[in-house]
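Schema walk-through. Below, the input block comes first and the output block second. Nothing else is stored per chain. Lengths vary across the set, and this one has 418 residues.
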Amino acid sequence: MSHFEYRDGRLFAEDVAISDIAAAVKTPFYCYSSSTLIDQYQAMADALAVVNGRICYAIKANSNQAVIRTLAKLGAGADVVSEGEARRALAAGISASEIVFSGVGKTRSEMQFAINAGIGQFNVESVGELDVLNEVAIEQEKIATVVFRVNPDVDAHTHDKISTGRKEDKFGIDIDLAPDLYEHAMELPGILPVGLAVHIGSQLTTLNPFQEAFSRVAAMVNALRAAGFDVNRLDLGGGLGIVYDGETPPEPQDYAAVVAETVGDLDVELTFEPGRVLVGNAGLLVTSVIQVKETATKRFVVVDAAMNDFIRPTLYDAIHAVATVAERSGESTYVSEIVGPVCETGDILASNTHLPTLEENDLICFKSAGAYGAVMASSYNTRPPIPEIMVNHRDFSVIRPRPSYDEILSLDHLPHWL
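--- output ---
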């Protein structure tokens, strides 16, 4: 359920008018709805209760500690892919035992930190990583609990840059090699192998790829058990899509039904790593019009947000629904390109978008911006990263402020010869 709606001609986030936030913090900014986060988490948790699944929120989707804390208070663990994300999860109140450390390139220092912190599970993606993790665990006089992320060679039919389960992708271990890796792990004194993991991509809008991947994993679990190995844990990743521009992604209960059908009778602990589906529709990017520029071929709406603030349209050709903050239904619209001020031709936030006549300082917003928005932002062109706001009923709070230019410049240190 979304908690963004028009009331008396103004767009609200829960019980706070977006225009009031804009007046207080200036544009551009990200705005998150606490109630939407809670509703999305509860919908997923209720669906997965049928298979007794544990939810570990994929922090890469949105790493703001207020977002993590909101989900942690509901019972979420965390899926992290770096020491920094692990530190964020811990600082936000998630216990180390409820953290899964994923990622194809964990460094020794990250392994050392995670083992000392008591991270509950490592998702191992190669033989080399397994051997290094064993060495680090022995050095720390600890045992690392691992599952092996297998690559089932399943096409998720999503964007090429967020597909992760094909043979040509960098992620996971060829699923057919799992028995050899399990056998090798049993010989390592610093490793406790307990199961398998799989994650085939992000923003999946059909269930067939999940069914195919989970079925292959189930067959491998049975093969491993037949070979005498203990397999008591499955990590089924995330990837369930959301609505950006008219998609019809599966409902959580339909996803859970596929889980039950494919792996429900294996008697294993199930972990899930949703990210986008929990936070994506809980956020807006709000921006102001700088000017409208007419050329011989196009109408450009130049806004104060840019590709450095919101890289998804440039990086993934992502389409986000656009709305005016003041309700303008019934007015004539014009095909427009929404662009930012960054000195790049690729600084396009939306193409061929129908918008009414707009003027300087008019507010517009990009929907479904709660995932992979602020977390992927930069200060390119020395543009201060934009603030993040969280709304809770009638209250709102700046949960990450906009840095000043002095703060940005202070990060640089001149060498002694200058």
